[in-house]
Design goal:
- The protein has about 240 residues and is an alpha/beta fold.
- The protein has eight helices and nine strands.
- The longest helix has 20 residues.
- The radius of gyration is 17 Å and the shape is globular.
- The relative contact order is 0.16.
Length: about 240
């Protein structure tokens, strides 16, 4: 049994899923891995189930959902599963190698050894560490994080990061059913909620590499949700209509 589970949401990740699973399981630190697949028509789930049956029955798990229900709901589904199965450290990670599996032990150490409640794999805490993104997207992401800091008061440099480790107590304390956003703003809302609840958030520097295989799920409507969603988060916190 491991004390840690990595949650990876998938939709059409057949080019990446086996390699990312093997990379996580190749680490010295033992992690379990949960895939939340939103009905990928390319057979992503079938690849996971083959690996479960042939090699990783005690470490690899999958939850299959009927269709594309949103990143936030995928992670909340995974969080609830992880809490039910007794994990102490619960990770978010992308399937496409934009997050380096070799950084998982560093996020774990930040929580398990150094005492953080939420460890954030940060692209921006030591300059700008992004590889193979167009300049426009780098600037959009960087200034989006600056905007979130301004509105929310959080000191986090990479407020939109999706590579994270949570201590169990954080996810037990947050009312997961009261998380409002499903897309890009979900990552901001989870950090802001943990921050408002008084948990210790720390940033761990990483290098973010744009995907090589498969299609990106990012679009301008996702950024729009974040732009207006942050204002709504701030308003909810002021009028006490949210969990904090």
């Amino acid at each position: 049994m491991s004390d840690s589970v990595v949650i990876i949401p998938t939709y059409n990740e057949k080019e990446n899923i086996e390699n990312i699973i093997r990379a996580v399981f190749g680490l010295e630190k033992k992690f379990h891995l949960l895939v939340i697949d939103d009905g990928s028509p390319d057979g992503t789930a079938a690849i996971v189930k083959r690996l479960m049956a042939s090699e990783f029955a005690d470490r690899l798990f999958i939850v299959e959902r009927a269709g594309k229900l949103g990143l936030g709901t995928a992670y909340i589904c995974g969080f609830k599963w992880a809490l039910e199965h007794g994990y102490e450290y619960i990770f978010e990670m992308d399937a496409d190698f934009s997050h380096n599996p070799a950084d998982l032990p560093r996020l774990y150490d930040a929580c398990a050894v150094q005492g953080a409640d939420v460890a954030i794999g940060s692209r921006y805490c030591n300059g700008v560490n992004v590889v193979n993104w167009p300049l426009g997207r780098v600037l959009m992401s960087y200034y989006a994080s600056a905007y979130v800091r301004l509105v929310t008061g959080m000191k986090i440099k990479d407020t939109t990061a999706g590579f994270k480790c949570y201590r169990r107590k954080v996810l037990e304390t947050i009312d997961l059913d009261n998380i409002h956003f499903k897309g890009y703003a979900f990552q901001i809302e989870m950090k802001f909620t943990a921050y408002k609840l008084g948990f210790k958030l720390v940033e761990v520097p990483i290098v973010f590499v744009n995907r090589v295989l498969g299609a990106s799920k990012m679009n301008t409507s996702i950024f729009g949700e974040a732009l207006f969603g942050v204002l709504r988060l701030r308003w909810w916190s002021l009028v006490r209509k949210s969990a904090f």
